[in-house]
């Protein structure tokens, strides 16, 4: 334990230990610790499209914290910062299928994409209709250490919530997939790191950042962004992030905004940054119609923030507002 | 900005900037940025007891994140780790009074206690009936840097939620105060720090902790606990915390448990520790009837955890389950 000052019982047992804690805290979940799959305790609902997501651990509450009514049916956590394997996804897909097919929500990282593709093919061979949506909202870099194309980050929360509401309403698979794709297409993210994070297995920070530096466009595994910059006031960092988003897809109209901590940022500082985000949007004539401020897609104890903006439509707003009951998002029930 | 790597726009403007962000994110709140008071936007409900709390900033979401239906009517944030002043409390008390009186929920820190006492006296002179409940659940130390007697920590969340539900149900002031006192009497907490935190004004950590050390019984401002210890596995740290609680008030029956991050602890690690808490309770024959796992009473970016256990009654469970709609706790509506 000397080399890693973390609240864990051993490097190898982090994920199963955390899954046991998740099960103890949330009776609405059924947790298969051995196979590392988190389900709704209520099981599949006949005729409802099932939603499965997954990805490396270390980003909590993503994804297991979004399993429940109105959102995911199952989540497959991998080891820390490591893709889950096809077996997890296949088992989850089969278990949540209520006869109306299953949507895979996949963040665009090479391992996740390949494994979900294999799982989708094998599930289809077993007779489950599967559709997939790829989340690739991060405008920071075109390709990166873990990804061909854009990385998937904060928009995943929006996709899981909104597609989950559509599925709960009884929409067919093609329609749930369409709305999921639309949310992704209308969403953009950008992240800024003030510090690195340390995976239990590595025992040392994923990258080095001096006291005077920040990483602009940071990835959720600490992979490099666009550039290093000197530390600046929150308002300037927010402007850099929002400019990157706005240049890619102009912010306009009613927006859904997430100001996401990365696990180690004080909440008071996230609210400081959110004030700057709201001011930026007002300056561009856009409106904060709905928002989340807090830790939703984390990178262990990394400090910094990411901001995700989705251009809402009436349909997306209605689906966002629909009831949800998960460990990390809960309203209307 | 060189000396403090924080997501802020200036040391002096942290609290008002965060309050502007809070207002932008939560339309259900009315935020008086100048006077530093956060109200429900809906105003006082005639005949309902008003609930006011407050304390130093840097512990978010406490207290402003608990303003809303079923919980607080107003919160008065002070500067970081500094008590709010009587003027804030008097104005909040007057504004939330719906004619049925106002309950002050006060964490046991000398500044908070003195200022709330003064505010209660002056409000009474203005004709508002005021009752107070003192929260002092932290078993770690008898007196400390900021406190005569036990410190108030995690139980504050339980008191605010349960007293808030009683008030929402129309209970009279004496009854709301009684239930608040009962929650405090049945709750105990203990905290462990793996790292210190840095206030914006100080610009350096509040205390020094080596890579091999933890502070057992840490206070929410980083004030000393019982003792330093070498770093240990989560299960051992949890056992030390739970033993301290159990020796003071044996854990038994149905419990409400909060496993609280301190702002900088990865959520995956909090779930690891929660599994150990649940195992400890099971070993003692107690049950996790309700729980919270996450950041509820933080100390900026401090790493570590605190655990709070409340021995439930049927009445307290019913009030805990009642609908709530605040930025940080929301269910049933």
Automatic annotation (TrEMBL), chains A, B:
State the UniProt keywords alphabetically: Kinase, Transferase
Where is each DhaK domain found?
A: 10-331
Q: Is Acetylation given among the entry's keywords?
A: no
Identify the PROSITE patterns for this entry: DHAK
- What Pfam families does the entry give? Dak1 (PF02733)
Q: Name one GO molecular function term.
A: kinase activity
**Keyword Transferase found:** yes
User: According to the lineage, what is the superkingdom?
Assistant: Bacteria
SUPFAM superfamilies, alphabetized: DAK1/DegV-like
Q: Which PANTHER family match?
A: TRIOKINASE/FMN CYCLASE (PTHR28629), TRIOKINASE_FMN CYCLASE (PTHR28629:SF4)
Which NCBIfam families does the protein's record reference?
dhaK1 (TIGR02363)
Report what the protein is called.
Dihydroxyacetone kinase subunit DhaK
């Amino acid at each position: 334990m000397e080399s890693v000052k973390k609240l864990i019982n051993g490097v190898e047992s982090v994920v199963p230990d955390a899954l046991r804690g998740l099960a103890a805290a949330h009776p609405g979940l059924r947790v298969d610790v051995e196979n590392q799959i988190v389900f709704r305790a209520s099981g599949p609902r006949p005729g409802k499209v099932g939603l499965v997501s997954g990805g490396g651990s270390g980003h909590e509450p993503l994804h297991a914290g979004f399993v429940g009514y109105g959102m995911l049916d199952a989540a497959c956590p991998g080891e820390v910062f490591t893709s889950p394997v096809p077996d997890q996804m296949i088992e989850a897909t089969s278990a949540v299928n209520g006869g109306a097919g299953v949507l895979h929500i996949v963040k665009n990282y090479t391992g996740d994409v390949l494994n979900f593709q294999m799982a989708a093919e094998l599930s289809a061979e077993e007779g489950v209709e599967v559709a997939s949506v790829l989340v690739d909202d991060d405008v920071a870099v075109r390709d990166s250490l873990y990804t061909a194309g854009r990385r998937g980050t904060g928009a995943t929360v929006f996709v899981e919530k909104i597609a989950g509401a559509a599925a709960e309403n009884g929409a067919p698979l093609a329609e749930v997939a369409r709305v999921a794709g639309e949310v992704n297409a209308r969403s953009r993210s950008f992240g800024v790191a003030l510090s690195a994070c340390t995976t239990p297995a590595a025992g040392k920070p994923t990258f080095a950042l001096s006291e005077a530096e920040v990483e602009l466009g940071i990835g959720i595994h600490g992979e490099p962004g666009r550039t290093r910059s000197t530390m600046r006031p929150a308002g300037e960092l927010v402007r850099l992030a929002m400019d990157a988003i706005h240049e890619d897809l102009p912010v306009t109209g009613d927006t859904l905004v997430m100001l996401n901590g990365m696990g180690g940022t004080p909440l008071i500082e996230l609210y400081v940054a959110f004030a700057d985000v709201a001011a930026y949007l007002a300056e561009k004539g856009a409106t904060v119609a709905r928002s989340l401020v807090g830790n939703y897609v984390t990178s262990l104890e990394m400090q910094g923030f990411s901001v995700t903006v989705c251009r809402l439509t009436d349909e997306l707003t209605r689906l966002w507002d629909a009831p949800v009951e998960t460990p990390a998002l809960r309203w209307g029930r």
